[in-house]
Design goal:
By secondary structure, the protein is of the alpha/beta class. It is built from 13 helices and 16 strands.
């Protein structure tokens, strides 16, 4: 059988390699890190997370939870690594990012059908290939893909939140607790009205890192806005967004604070915590100055400060088919965020889609038809049927699933019905899938 070349060992590339190898298809996985680094990565392991350590909600009353069920049913390597390296995060699935990427790397290196090479690929090769170079695709490869598509890549700016040392948090000014009393997985840093106003003013007056005019004109992804951009949309925007205090009463007063900054565990030892919703483009010195306006963080030790980076993605409705194959080449698939999905799990799912499509291609069969009712099928439908003129990256959400036959008013109940329908369709899909 032909060896499949996979370019990029992020979440999508790693998942694609795993799905192919466990179906008996030999894989050559090429990754340029650590020989050539991106603006956001820090090492060379497979599946390294560059933004949050949270993989999103892990309950069936959320679209993200539905997607995780489907990935687990596919025996996903990324989900296996996440479950093995999970850290407390309430109803979300968060991971120790180092153990997470170490697990993915170890499993791939130990598989007899997977070869990993460290080298940059600057041209799209001939033969069976999956391109999973991600939103931080290197310049030469991006130029090659631009030439193949005959159009410029689309792109937006994404941001990373700071991480700080647990021992530097003033617990006399903070308290543990998850929203609505569901455990004690988060550290909450309360703000009264004057402290909140000082933080907002600090964010608005702080100097940002990007200076070039062309960067200022580029769009942000609405699902991952820098905290200073949110603050600029109105005085109360933050406290009705990432700093909302609802369901987080302060044990010392019994009342909800005016606003609250939540910190989420970032490693299994519980020595590192990240600032939830505090993606930022502020200069590093300004980050330390402004974030220390939060009373519980006045002496915080920041082990990683926030950064901004550009994310590339293709105009999927114009250049990809429903199986993620590149227009004009049946043996070339794209996978991951570069296809126009947003989110760790969404990228992982697109790696699985490309792998199953490639597996069928090598066996002389058509790519599988993913059920529209499923989370994966709904994402693929969005990528193929969105308007090319206004195409933007998409997370899994209720809006992309087909409507229910009956009207359900409660969002929770509606999501539950969507989940039951998706699981039935996905189980039938797996039964009919020919390996």
């Amino acid at each position: 059988m032909n060896r499949v070349l996979i370019i990029g060992a992020g979440l999508a590339g790693s998942e694609a390699a795993w799905q192919l190898a466990k179906r008996g298809v030999p894989v050559r996985l090429l990754e340029m890190r650590p020989l050539k680094m991106t603006p956001a990565h820090t090492g060379g392991r497979c599946g390294e997370l560059v933004c949050s350590n949270s993989l999103g909600a892990d309950v069936l009353t959320s679209p993200a939870g539905i997607l995780k069920v489907e990935l687990r049913k596919l025996d996903s390597l990324v989900m296996m690594a996440a479950d093995r390296s999970s850290v407390p995060a309430g109803r979300a699935l968060a991971v120790d990012r180092d153990r997470f990427s170490e697990t993915i790397t170890r499993e791939l290196e130990g598989h007899p059908l997977v070869e990993i090479f460290r080298e940059e690929v600057s041209e799209v090769p001939s033969g069976p290939c999956i391109i999973a170079t991600g939103p931080l695709t290197s310049g030469p490869m991006a130029d090659c893909l631009k030439a193949m598509t005959g159009q410029e890549f689309l792109y937006f700016f994404d941001a990373v939140a700071p991480v700080l040392a647990r021992e530097s948090i003033d617990m006399e000014r903070a308290y543990k607790g998850s929203r609505y009393g569901q455990g004690e997985d988060y550290i909450n840093c309360p703000l009264d009205e004057s402290e909140y106003d000082a933080l907002v003013e600090g964010l608005l007056s702080a100097e940002r890192a990007m200076k070039h005019e062309f960067e200022r004109k580029q769009p942000y992804f609405e699902g991952c806005l820098p905290v200073e951009i949110i603050a600029g949309r109105g005085r109360d925007t933050l406290r009705f967004g990432p700093l909302r205090p609802v369901g987080l009463p302060n044990p010392s007063t019994g009342r909800e604070p005016f606003a609250v900054v939540q910190l989420r565990q970032d490693n299994m030892e519980g020595t590192l915590f990240n600032m939830v919703g505090f993606q930022t483009n502020l200069k590093w010195g300004e980050q330390e100055r402004v974030f220390r306006l939060i009373p519980a963080l006045r002496h915080a030790e920041f082990v990683r400060l926030g950064v901004m980076h550009r994310n590339l993605f293709v105009n999927a409705p114009r250049v990809l088919d429903k199986a993620l194959r590149f227009s004009g080449r049946t043996d070339l698939f794209l996978a991951g965020q570069i296809v126009g999905v947003e989110g760790y799990m969404e990228s992982t799912a697109m790696g699985a889609v490309a792998a199953l499509g490639m597996d069928r291609l090598l066996k002389g069969m058509d790519p599988p038809a993913w059920p529209r009712e499923t989370a994966i099928g709904s994402l693929l439908h969005y990528l193929s049927d969105a308007r090319p003129e206004t195409f933007q990256p998409m997370n899994v959400n209720l809006g992309i699933f087909p409507p229910l036959e009956k009207k359900v008013r409660s969002r929770t109940d509606r999501c539950q019905e969507v989940a039951f329908r998706a699981e039935r369709a996905f189980d039938a899909f797996l039964e009919n899938l020919v390996d």
